[in-house]
Write a structure and sequence with these properties.
three-stranded mixed beta sheet, alpha/beta, Zincin-like, globular, 2 domains, 251 residues
């Protein structure tokens, strides 16, 4: 995926060339990221100049997305705290032990159980459990996504080369020209219909690389109420987080 630097910020974007377009158009969405449509004969230098001119506007849109939903309170990884999986909340129980060296996380009987070394500071505990939760979501996604993918691949008569979960800061999904689909692991916190919509969205890109009317018509043929899922993700996407903040240190 192409990108450019604006100050210290890297801005990734999807670039589509069009024989019908006379001007460069830029769209910014939480789900789709930055999409640039440019005339097929535009010079690279001219395109980069326009992108840098529009960078402040792009960053302002990103900021607006961060304000769509109330930012979730930083996770403290304490007993009683709730963590989402496929739209349902499950409580965490934390135990400290003197005879272990690493933190362990399991899901057992409707609860997350964390075992943490007693010697860990709060920050060490938070870092360890943040990593453990991410690994847990990745593991669940590796089992769940192929099941859902099989359903929709058959309905759409489309099969990707691969589907993988990964870290993506501002995109929920990516479909490459090679037929590989990458999904943001945080989607495993969302309700299953939202997960399904994301998979259908990316699968549809294997047939329609852009967001044309044909693309959305195809998505609607599989998920008639896709716009509700798209709006849910736009509004609630920022809440799908297990981030925690480091305490301020005064010296």
């Amino acid at each position: 995926m192409p990108c450019f630097m604006y100050g210290k910020t890297t801005i990734d974007y999807q670039l589509d060339y069009s024989f019908d377009s006379k001007d460069v158009s830029i769209a910014v969405e939480w789900l789709d990221g930055v999409k640039v449509t440019a005339p097929h004969d535009i010079k690279e230098q001219q395109l980069q100049h326009l992108l840098h001119q529009k960078a402040p506007w792009i960053l302002s849109k990103w900021k607006a997305f961060d304000e769509i939903a109330d930012k979730p309170a930083p996770k403290e990884f304490v007993s009683g705290e709730k963590f989402s999986y496929l739209g349902r909340n499950y409580r965490l129980k934390v135990y400290r032990h003197t005879n272990i060296d690493k933190a362990h996380l399991v899901f057992y009987r409707g609860r997350f159980i964390a075992n943490v070394p007693a010697r860990f500071s709060e920050e060490e505990k938070n870092d360890a459990l943040s990593t453990a939760f991410k690994k847990w979501y990745l593991k669940q996604g590796e089992k769940k996504l192929p099941q859902r993918l099989k359903i929709y691949s058959e309905k759409m008569n489309i099969a990707p080369e691969s589907v993988k979960l990964k870290e993506q800061k501002r995109r929920w999904g990516t479909c490459t020209s090679n037929g590989d689909i990458y999904v943001n692991w945080r989607i495993m916190m969302a309700p299953l219909p939202i997960v399904d919509y994301l998979l259908v969205h990316e699968l549809a890109h294997l047939k329609y690389p852009n967001h044309s009317k044909d693309f959305w018509r195809f998505v609607r043929s599989i998920i008639p109420d896709y716009d509700q899922s798209k709006e849910w993700l736009r509004v609630n996407g920022p809440k799908l987080s297990i981030a925690h903040e480091s305490p301020h240190v005064v010296t």
